[in-house]
Amino acid sequence: MAEHAQYEELARQLSAVGAVKRELARMLPSDCPGGSAGVLTLLGRHGEMRMSRLAELLSVDMSVTSRHVAHVAERGWIERLPDPDDKRSRLLRLTPEGRAVIAELYRRTSRLMADRLGDWSDDEVGQLTALLGRLRESFDATHPTRAPA
Amino acid sequence: MAEHAQYEELARQLSAVGAVKRELARMLPSDCPGGSAGVLTLLGRHGEMRMSRLAELLSVDMSVTSRHVAHVAERGWIERLPDPDDKRSRLLRLTPEGRAVIAELYRRTSRLMADRLGDWSDDEVGQLTALLGRLRESFDATHPTRAPA
DNA sequence: TATTGTTATACTCTATAACTATA
DNA sequence: TATAGTTATAGAGTATAACAATA
Q: How far from B32 is each of B60, B104, B142, CA to CA, in Å?
């Protein structure tokens, strides 16, 4: 259990993360905004999946996911296939063009991160990543202690 | 120097912080959106200051700051006083009403944080806060190694 | 009836550019 | 000329509600 002032300081730093996210967003290709990049990288990491699963991984409403997915589908970066198990559902799959975009995103991310975090150790980057993961888990509304059912 | 995969994972977790920030925003008073809350809490912490200084602390453009400040000034939560040292500038000062809003913000933040981070130790909260602070510093465009002048 | 996904609408936050007033 | 601040405009992201199709 932490003190109030500590919570305030954490809240302030979380707000300030916005500046970092905006700088990451500024180096994205012009036709691939952040929402699209999220769709592509999650499909690249987890493989073919349904809309609802993707919305969960993105931590946004499915209506938002639908828009981001439409954007990348219009550019031919993913396919939307019928789900043999449920005709309401659609399976999202990367195309070769989509994989090429991901490769470019990776190049740009690596370059920027290496420039900005050049003096961070592997361990420090890992610590921050782990703590952010735990933070998200603690705030997850579907967490068992808050949604017991 | 960290590996590429580590950078990717950090970028993903930074994106996911958005969900946490949105949950914090959802419990704000209806006439006090996040931008207004940022203005009030920074004035509360650092005291009277000019627009340009506030923009720097918020890490956003001064045009954005101007809008947020106008919002809180319209509600009587701050005063905009003439700066005796520079007639172009305005000094921003909290009113008693503004301090009351801050008190309410603190109550709500504490309640939510205590609920979500109840199983975090002081040390863990402090570690995350410190790492986020360092992250912001590393990405700060005005950092001496990137803006040497 | 409940769920998957789409679309329309509205709100917040942000940056860029044009502008006013002052340094 | 340069800087402090304001305003107009445009773009990205998000949530809610209404809807169609299917379970």
A: 18, 11, 30
